[in-house]
Write a structure and sequence with these properties.
The complex is a heterodimer. In chain A, about 50% of the residues lie in helices and about 10% in strands. Chain A contains 16 helices and twelve strands. In chain A, the strands form four sheets. Chain A has a five-stranded mixed β-sheet with strand order 1-2-8-5-3, covered by helices on one side. A three-stranded antiparallel β-sheet of chain A has the order 4-12-9. A two-stranded antiparallel sheet of chain A has the order 6-7. Chain A starts with 15 loop residues before the first helix and ends with a strand. By secondary structure, chain B is of the alpha+beta class. Classes of the chains: A alpha+beta, B alpha+beta.
Chain lengths: ~400, ~70
Amino acid sequence: MTATLGDIDLLPFADPEYQVDPYPYYKEVRDLTPLYASPAGVYCAVRHEDVFALTRDRRLSSKEVDFGIANVFHDSILGMDSPDHGRVRGVSSKWFVPARVEEWLEETRRLVNLALDDGARAGGLDACADLSFTVTFGTMAHILDVGTHDAQNCREKVLEMGRALRPAATEQDVATAEAAFAWYVDYIKDLVASRAGTPQTGLLGAFLGAVDEDRMSEAELLASVTLYYAVGHLDNSFLIQNGVKILGEMPEQREIFRTQPDARNDMISEMLRMDTPEQFVTRYALEDIDVSGETLPAGSILLAMIGSANMDERVFPNPEVFDHTRHNVTAQQMAFGGGQHGCQGQILARRQAEVALTALVERFPDYRISGPVIRDDTEFIRNIISLPIEF
Amino acid sequence: MKISVNLDTCQNMGQCVYEAPSVFALDFQGRLQYVDHADDGLLEHVESAQALCPTQSITIEPSDGESAPLATSR
């Protein structure tokens, strides 16, 4: 049955307990039904098999999703379907292919070393503010070839935006996010304007060139730069800080990571699987779609729960155990989504995490988590905002 | 045209499937399947797939390339 069971909401998005630890709730729904009709007015697919298929299903649209205050992102690849998606993604795709990623990693390495040098002098650092954020934000600025002024505002405003893009957002969240969006768009407009008449370097230059060639509109330019600037340091920073936490809590895993370079990619997959930064992706059903025997009705909104798929015991036995030797973790973990909207920065995000975590464990093999880990989780984003470590 | 995909580097991300669905597809296990010869009328779509490929795994050989004249000259 897709109906709710009486008055009990099995995925209570607004419940603080759910936001802190949604995983038992997912399990209950997975065992009950492949498709849960939430009283929040959305359908939730929870099993790996379905989430995997649905993220690749052409009958689901991103363009038709109402992003509300974030509607500016319909002018970016996030909110486009074919053929516009391919046209705009094609402008930036070659900037994130493996060979380019290796170039960007030189900047990542430089920033990681700076952060660790500062940390060495201070005896420790905050893995969020001093490492994961500075490294990912600085690398993306380098790729775009723009400065990093107002970095702290950029970090905070993105988190404010994220708080509004979820089923249980409050009016206050929406009002705050509206202001954050306005701030971001102005910031990006200034950034773009400051580049007028200068050589077209970096990814921003590529976008400007595409506008000149009529491959992109002005609105698509602004939305695209906003997207890369905003999310280019979001989920990848979560991955790094989550990795610092996991390796900090499990010295035996840290030792494997430090001494077995070949294991690192699968270990990063396992980090992504066990606490997926974004818990779902949102789509609009263009027609009735069968989900393992249940019907997702045309015109409805689907949350494909990648955070649940990644903990599905049908695909990952003993899902709560960190085990990078699972044969299928790299191939089947779903943290990057999949299909047309599969994360464009996934090769970069993985390699950044590998570079940052490797440098940390090689230089400070005995680092310790030295204070309270402060989380700011919602039903959408799993975020650590403070993670002090000591060397 | 002749199409080849380096399956050692391909990570089945499937961008190509959206650009040229008559050439590229993902099977039920999510693995890439493709046809290695396609009509030149599809060139624009296959080139778009090539440009979008996140791992740069697609190679295209247009059939009006050098191989045909070379063959007749011998």
